């Protein structure tokens, strides 16, 4: 499977009572497709999968697959604390019509590398779908070592990796030693230019929920046109926002507030995450306005 392009990890809209708003979700999907993103991820970190029940996650899979299937590639995030739950979610996503799955290390339990290898092999055996690995040890507590990746060479379904460690050295290793094994996807937004320079052709980017045109333009410049001078100019415009998201400590809340500013009423993040303060909203609005004033 080709994972090139801008992949948006779609937000999960909530009402003020905390319920999932499926009609709003479909509107978000339509907007992203209209704005030219290349793929959608449902059930990622930005979608607050950790705050949804298993049944709610299946409900979201069904809604998006029924609405978007055939219009754009869709990938299902199936991470859970147990292998059995991951398999159940993956089987549901496959039956719904998803094209690929996003597989991270089960969070909190901190499996060893051998245990993690057994986990992902079981997922592969059970689902037989294209897989993007998701390496984000700051969130999961468990890294995907280079030795772990090497051990998957004989598994052709492992086709891409979203790399979110922030380590430039590790990104270099993936871009050189593993370039014939895995498609490299940027998962550290404030390093996207570095990823593209080193040959990545994919970017999983939460801010594309509300800044899709800017993300698509940067991808077009760097990956399609190979114009890194133009790419650097576009990246410089985006960088204040990307820095705020990566370093501000309230990623999901900022993404959802950005959607609100862009005209998508996706509601609050679920507890324990709290709403942004007025000062945080004001600071974010300044950064947002400075960025979108360059549009068309």
TrEMBL record:
The active site is at residues 134, 162. Signal peptide: none annotated. The keyword Cytoplasm applies. InterPro entries: Aldolase_TIM, DapA, DapA-like, Schiff_base-form_aldolases_AS. GO terms for cellular component: cytosol. Keywords: Amino-acid biosynthesis, Cytoplasm, Diaminopimelate biosynthesis, Lyase, Lysine biosynthesis, Schiff base. It holds the Pfam family DHDPS. Pathway: Amino-acid biosynthesis; L-lysine biosynthesis via DAP pathway; (S)-tetrahydrodipicolinate from L-aspartate: step 3/4. Its EC number is 4.3.3.7. GO terms for biological process: diaminopimelate biosynthetic process; lysine biosynthetic process via diaminopimelate. Gene3D superfamilies: Aldolase class I. Pyruvate binds at residues 46, 204. It catalyses: L-aspartate 4-semialdehyde + pyruvate = (2S,4S)-4-hydroxy-2,3,4,5-tetrahydrodipicolinate + H2O + H(+). GO terms for molecular function: 4-hydroxy-tetrahydrodipicolinate synthase activity. PANTHER family: 4-HYDROXY-2-OXOGLUTARATE ALDOLASE, MITOCHONDRIAL (PTHR12128:SF66), DIHYDRODIPICOLINATE SYNTHASE (PTHR12128). NCBIfam families: dapA. Belongs to the DapA family. Catalyzes the condensation of (S)-aspartate-beta-semialdehyde [(S)-ASA] and pyruvate to 4-hydroxy-tetrahydrodipicolinate (HTPA). This is 4-hydroxy-tetrahydrodipicolinate synthase. The lineage of its organism: Bacteria, Pseudomonadati, Pseudomonadota, Gammaproteobacteria, Oceanospirillales.
């Amino acid at each position: 499977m080709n994972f090139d392009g801008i992949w948006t990890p779609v937000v999960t809209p909530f009402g003020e009572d905390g319920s999932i708003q499926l009609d709003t979700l479909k509107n978000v999907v339509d907007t992203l497709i209209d704005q030219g993103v290349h793929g959608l991820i449902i059930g990622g970190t930005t979608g607050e999968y950790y705050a949804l029940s298993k049944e709610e996650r299946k409900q979201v899979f069904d809604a998006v697959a029924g609405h978007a299937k055939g219009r754009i590639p869709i990938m299902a995030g199936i991470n859970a604390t147990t292998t059995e739950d991951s398999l159940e979610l993956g089987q549901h996503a496959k039956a719904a019509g998803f094209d690929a799955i996003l597989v991270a290390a089960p969070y909190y339990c901190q499996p060893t590398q051998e245990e993690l290898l057994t986990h992902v092999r079981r997922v592969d055996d059970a689902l037989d779908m294209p897989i993007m690995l998701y390496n984000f040890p700051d969130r999961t507590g468990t890294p995907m070592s280079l030795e772990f990746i090497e051990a998957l060479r004989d598994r052709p379904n492992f086709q891409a990796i979203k790399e979110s460690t922030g380590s430039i050295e590790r990104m270099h290793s993936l871009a050189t030693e593993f370039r014939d094994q895995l498609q490299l996807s940027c998962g550290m937004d404030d390093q996207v230019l570095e990823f593209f320079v080193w040959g990545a052709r994919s970017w999983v980017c939460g801010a594309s929920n509300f800044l899709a045109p800017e993300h698509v333009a940067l991808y077009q410049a760097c990956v399609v046109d190979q114009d890194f001078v133009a790419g650097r100019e576009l990246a410089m415009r985006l960088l204040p926002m990307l820095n705020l998201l990566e370093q501000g400590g309230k990623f999901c809340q900022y993404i959802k507030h950005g959607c609100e500013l862009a005209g998508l009423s996706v509601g609050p993040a679920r507890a324990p995450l709290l709403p942004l303060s007025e000062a945080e909203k004001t600071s974010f609005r300044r950064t947002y306005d400075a960025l979108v004033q360059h549009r068309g």
